[in-house]
Amino acid sequence: MRIAVTGTHRVGKSTLLEELGDRLVGYQVVEEPYHLLEEEGYEFASPPSLEDFLEQLRRSMELLEDAEAARDVLFDRCPIDFLGYLLTHEDSDSFDPEEWLARVRSTLQTLDLVVFVPIEERDRIPLSAHEDPEMRATVDEKLAWMLLDDPWELGVEVLTVHGSTSARVTQVLERLERG
């Protein structure tokens, strides 16, 4: 299966992905676009600019397209993540999601499952002092709206996970067992 783990920052996506990678023998784990771009020398603004999120969106779509033939892949993030950040960015007025939706939709169709890790009542990962909790909550709400309400008819299966890392892993594995 081709699975993407999605959610705002500091919700435990990468930890979940690492645990799933350990449990799902034979699965390839694809790092999130931010880290891949950084390794290639891309310099992100602090805080990230609209162009930084657009670059991550582009890379995320490329990763899904490049790995299209590969089965058994775990992706750290997918295009939905970056739409969430773009739609909530302070410069979001200059971003038109309609320009991107056809390609986003087609790349998401290469996925069998999107695992959504929302912010929970009790945060499992503390935020650093420089992080904006309101922006993070707004991104989380936007992701939930796009994935669960599906206003753009993205047509992807979404599994929302909750609880500890081991509980989340169990929820994903149980879903995979059902086929």
Q: What does this 3D model show about the protein?
A:
By secondary structure, the protein is of the alpha/beta class. The chain has one domain (2-177): P-loop containing nucleotide triphosphate hydrolases (Rossmann fold, 3-Layer(aba) Sandwich), CATH 3.40.50.300. The chain contains 7 helices and 5 strands. It has a 5-stranded parallel sheet, with helices on both faces. Helix 6 links the parallel strand 4 (113-116) and strand 5 (158-160). Helix 3 packs parallel to helix 5 (98-108). The longest helix is centred in the N-terminal third of the chain and has 17 residues, at 50-66. The model has no long low-confidence stretch (mean pLDDT 93).
Secondary-structure map:
Blueprint: E1 2-6, H1 13-23, E2 28-30, H2 33-39, H3 50-66, E3 73-76, H4 79-88, H5 98-108, E4 113-116, H6 133-149, E5 158-160, H7 165-177
Helix pairs in contact: 1-7, 3-4, 3-5, 4-6
Biggest sheet record: 5 strands, parallel
Order of helices and strands: EHEHHEHHEHEH
Distance between the termini: 9 Å
Strand content: 5-15%
Low-confidence stretches: none
CATH topology: Rossmann fold
CATH level 4 superfamily: P-loop containing nucleotide triphosphate hydrolases
CATH class category name: Alpha Beta
Number of domains: 1
Question: What kind of oligomer do you see?
Answer: single chain
Global mean pLDDT: 93
* Molecular shape: globular
Kindly state the number of beta strands: 5
Q: Please give the share of residues in helix.
A: 40-55%
Structure class:
alpha/beta
DSSP helical segment count: 7
Q: Give me the side-by-side strand order of the main sheet.
A: 2-3-1-4-5
CATH architectural grouping? 3-Layer(aba) Sandwich
Radius of gyration: 15 Å
